[in-house]
Amino acid sequence: MSLKDKIILSFMVTGVIVVFLSAIEYFNFVKIKHEIAYLETTDTIRSKCLQLRRHEKNYFLYGSSQAAPESGMVYKYLNDLTELFLSQPVNNERLSAIRELLIQYEAAFKKIETSVNILKNKIKSAKLDEELISLIESTFTDIPLKAGEFIEKNALSPDITLVTELKVLDADIHSLRKIGENLINAANELDKSARTKVDDAVRSSQLAILVLLPLFFVVGLGMLFMISNNIANRLNRLVKIVEDTGKGFFHDDRHPTSALLYEKDELGILFNKFYEMESQLKQREKEIEQQNEELLQSRKLAAIGTLASGVAHELNNPLNNIYLSAQVLLREIGDSASPFLKKITGDVLGQTKRVKFIIGDLLEFARGRKLVPVEVDVYSLVNNAFKQIAFVVDVKEIEFAIVGDNTHIFCDSEQIERVFINLFLNAVEAMQNRGALSVRHETVDSSIRISISDTGPGIAAADIEKIFEPFFTTKDKGTGLGLAIVYNIIKKHGGELKVESEQGSSTTFIITLPVSGQTIET
User: Fold this and answer.
1) Within this chain, do residues 354 and 432 fall inside the same structural domain, yes or no?
2) In a domain, 97, yes or no
3) pLDDT on residue 13
4) pLDDT at 65
5) Which one of 131, 223, 264, 397 is most buried, counting C-beta atoms within 10 A?
6) Cβ–Cβ under 8 Å, residues 419 and 384
7) 336 and 429 housed in the same domain
């Protein structure tokens, strides 16, 4: 993810929070709007219930003079409330309770209104003075029980049925007023509940703002801080790496868990490119070191070769004279000499011969003759070399194997054969004439790679770097020139010689030679 993408992501996250906050506030607004509308409805219900009770009281208070208008208003508010309830949800328990009370109220009021109309006629026919009848007509709806008592006391022949009906009316009025009180209480509770819901919705909206608005700033600033801190840390790391690289210290941070390297942004690409450059510098430094070592080795070999050539030439003539004199002396003394004299003369002859062999190696090592490249079959070359060592050492218990196809190369067959002979002799001697010796050759690009492996005791790690140096040997009677001569021949052919060994296990010499003779030094 690029830095641009990360910044966009941070803004997207904060934007999501803003949208979330806006959505919450919108839903809270809708909820508040709904609750306010509900509150308006409950307030209207409460107000109309109060108006209903007011006209109910006026109906009973003003008697016959205002009965019809007040009764009409009672029915008007009952109808208004009924229509209002029809627009409200039926699953609201409080509204259902009020609706039930209104039904009870309307039924009770109709019953009272019917009773009042009947009682009006009966009061007019009562045996009372007209003024008393007029007084009773105007007050019996408000205090029907008192009106009944008055009739019992003042009527010439009281109508017991009328008195009883007035008592029933009084009970019905009390029942109506009780229903009215319950209706007002229910309306007040409904209104109170609606106001509580509005307050809760407002508080919920305020709480959402108080919580989400700081969260918006915290998350937004936090993400920006994390991104900037991440960039700063990685830039500081890059500066440190560049400084260390300038001092020649190469890093190895290319690990799968390296967050600095594998973040797929601009800095991650920069780190990748820098590490690629550092790897190339490291590889070039290794190549330069290797070339320097090879140059130093070549100069060392050239210097030793020059010295060896001069020493060999100076020693060769005296040694020839000593060798010939020892042969003449041994022939002249014949059988008449004592055993001791024969032994000494034989030792002189043998040691002189050994020194001549060493001088021969020195001359071979120092000799810089031109190569004579010819096309040869690798398989035949290797097989002939092994057959030649069979005349010198015992190879009956050596398991020899050649693995590879029929590959031809251009080389000086005589010298490359000597390379194989030297390596085979060393391997057989290391295995003490018993073990497995295998040669594997294969073509790699424009070169042939030949691996010579034995099952000997291996080479100590401390000796591996020295084995190609002249006069270095771990043998009691070795000259230390065999592998130096091998190394020199391979280098003259433009090839490489390496060794891989595990002490106590095996040793493998790896020869890499160009297939074409064009790269051969002459």
Assistant:
1) no
2) yes
3) 67
4) 62
5) 223
6) no
7) no
Backbone phi, psi, residue 445, to 5° = 55, -120
Does residue 428 share a domain with residue 356?
A: no
Q: Say if residue 259's pLDDT is above 50.
A: no
Which residue's entry shows tokens 């890059």?
Answer: 238
Please provide the size of the chain in residues: 522
Q: Among 193, 156, 206, which Cα is nearest to 29's?
A: 206
Structure tokens at 442: 């294969």
| Whether 364 and 411 share a structural domain | no
Which residues lie across from 510 on neighbouring strands?
451, 498
Average pLDDT, the chain: 77
Same domain, 95 and 27: yes
Measure the CA–CA gap between 406 and 223, rounded to whole angstroms: 67
Please report the pLDDT score of residue 357 as a whole number.
61
Predicted pLDDT at 260: 47
Q: 340, 368, 396 — which closes off a domain? A: 368
Q: What mean pLDDT do residues 407-430 have?
A: 88
pTM, whole model, 2 decimals?
0.42
Domain count, the chain: 3
Residue 481: other Cβ atoms inside 10 A:
22
Residue 521 DSSP symbol? -
Do residues 80 and 123 lie in contact, with contact meaning Cβ atoms separated by under 8 Å? Answer: no
Q: At 254, list the tokens.
A: 């290319």
- Whether residue 318 is contained in a domain is answered as yes
End-to-end CA distance of the chain: 58
Tell me whether strands 435-444 and 398-403 are parallel, antiparallel or unpaired.
parallel
pLDDT single digits (tens) 287-327? 777 777 766 766 665 666 666 656 665 666 676 777 777 77
Per the CB < 8 A criterion, the answer to whether 305 and 492 are in contact is no
Residue type, 36: I
- The verdict on 344 and 406 lying in the same domain is no
Question: Does one domain contain both 70 and 177?
Answer: yes
The crossing angle, in degrees rounded to 10, of helices 266-333 and 482-492 is 130
Determine, yes or no, domain membership for 260.
no
Q: Which CATH number does the domain housing residue 381 bear?
A: 3.30.565.10
The span from the CA of 155 to the CA of 101, in Å, is: 39
- Note whether 357 and 461 are same-domain residues: no
The answer to the question of residue 16 being in a domain is yes
**pLDDT tens digits along 367-409:** 656 778 888 999 889 999 998 888 888 888 999 999 887 788 8
* Region 326-331 average pLDDT: 73
